[in-house]
């Protein structure tokens, strides 16, 4: 007898796989003919079968359980880098793509996560269905970014940028919608409040944006360096800037500081701002200070000079109040610190 050739070995292995997968597939006889397909069954619009075909429901052959047309190993709605997709069926199809090596990975996932006694998934299709199912991790956060692409076939099982669950907005923080181009220091100061940068994380999402803006053109991520967001682009914004679109800053990794910035304003962006009301005494002091500053500027012709810069008198006044509020606020904080030290 000759030693088995590599081809023969491969055939033996394949036969073994078929036997074990046949057992797993017996439960799904409804969708299977003798040489039929297993499929994802529950999709409302799409079905993926175990050959990696995705098709609309009406292209499914209910006799065989196979897609009669559609696309094989389709990665529509999936992102290459983190292997996360917004459509479950495409996640399964993409996961089955040979270059994603499902046979190799299925040896590393137990049916019950972290429970070796539950055994491994026996076919690439079963494995892919399992990994693509929504993970608890990614449904925790009511965050549009996550909701969009929550089906992942990566080991990590979640979109590449791990998202911190946003802490709830403290009751003393108010969401304020700024005017076009206005920064949050000014937007908050106009309401006799102060911008609290550390609370942006609690309003950096579509739900918060939609509470203040129409977001007619939709809601999605901005570029990471567009720190004038979260905010809304005015309907009158230039076309290339996506008028009527709401944008939020991409979720950040736990170890990286978010780039939220109270002082940035830009063009036709209306910012969403986390503001904290100031104590009445602070407001009174700030108003007084602003009035005094205005007086001085008026006396020296400063307002006229600044107006030539393009800012209206109203804006100048707003900014002065804002600056005064911030200054008084900082002085108070410093005072509080000093008192602590003295005690
Ligand atoms: C915030 O934005 C302002 C105005 O664009 C800029 O001068 C400042 O450097 C920014 N701060 C940070 C921390 O990025
Ligand atoms: C303002 O927004 C425009 C369009 O998004 C961008 O090109 C520009 O760099 C921004 N300016 C600042 C100061 O961030």
UniProtKB/TrEMBL annotation:
GO BP of this protein: positive regulation of SREBP signaling pathway
InterPro entries per UniProt: SPRING1
UniProtKB keywords: Glycoprotein, Golgi apparatus, Membrane, Signal, Transmembrane, Transmembrane helix
Region named Disordered: 294-343
Extent of the signal sequence: 1-24
Comp. bias (Low complexity): 313-343
Localization annotation: Golgi apparatus membrane
Principal subcellular localization: Golgi
One Pfam family hit: SPRING1
Similarity annotation: Belongs to the SPRING family.
Protein name: SREBP regulating gene protein
């Amino acid at each position: 007898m000759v030693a088995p050739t590599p081809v023969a070995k491969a055939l033996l292995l394949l036969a073994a796989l078929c036997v074990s997968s046949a057992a797993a597939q017996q439960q799904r006889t409804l969708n299977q003919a003798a040489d039929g397909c297993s499929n994802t069954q529950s999709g409302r619009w799409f079905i993926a079968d175990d050959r990696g075909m995705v098709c609309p429901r009406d292209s499914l052959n209910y006799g065989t359980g196979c897609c009669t047309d559609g696309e094989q190993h389709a990665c529509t709605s999936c992102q290459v880098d983190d292997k996360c997709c917004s459509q479950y069926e495409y996640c399964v199809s993409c996961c089955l793509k040979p270059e994603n090596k499902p046979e190799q990975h299925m040896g590393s996932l137990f049916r019950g996560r972290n429970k070796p006694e539950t055994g491994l998934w026996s076919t690439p299709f079963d494995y892919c269905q399992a990994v693509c199912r929504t993970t608890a991790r990614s449904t925790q956060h009511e965050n549009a970014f996550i909701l969009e692409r929550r089906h992942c076939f990566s080991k990590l099982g979640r979109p590449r940028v791990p998202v911190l669950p946003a802490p709830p907005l403290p009751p003393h923080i108010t969401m304020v919608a700024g005017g076009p181009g206005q920064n949050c220091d000014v937007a908050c100061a106009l309401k006799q409040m102060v911008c609290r940068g550390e609370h942006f994380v609690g309003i950096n999402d579509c739900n918060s944006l939609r509470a203040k803006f129409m977001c007619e053109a939709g809601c999605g991520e901005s570029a990471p360096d567009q720190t004038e967001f979260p905010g809304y682009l005015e309907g009158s914004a230039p076309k290339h800037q996506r008028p009527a679109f709401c944008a939020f800053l991409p979720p950040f990794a736990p170890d990286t500081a978010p780039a939220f910035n109270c002082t940035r304003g830009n063009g036709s962006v209306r910012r969403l701002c986390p503001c904290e009301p100031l104590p009445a005494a602070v407001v009174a002091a700030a108003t007084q200070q602003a009035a005094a500053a205005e007086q001085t500027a008026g006396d020296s012709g400063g307002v006229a000079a600044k107006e030539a810069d393009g800012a209206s008198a109203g804006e100048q006044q707003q900014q002065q109040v804002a600056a005064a509020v911030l200054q008084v606020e900082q002085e108070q904080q410093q005072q509080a610190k000093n008192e602590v030290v003295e005690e």
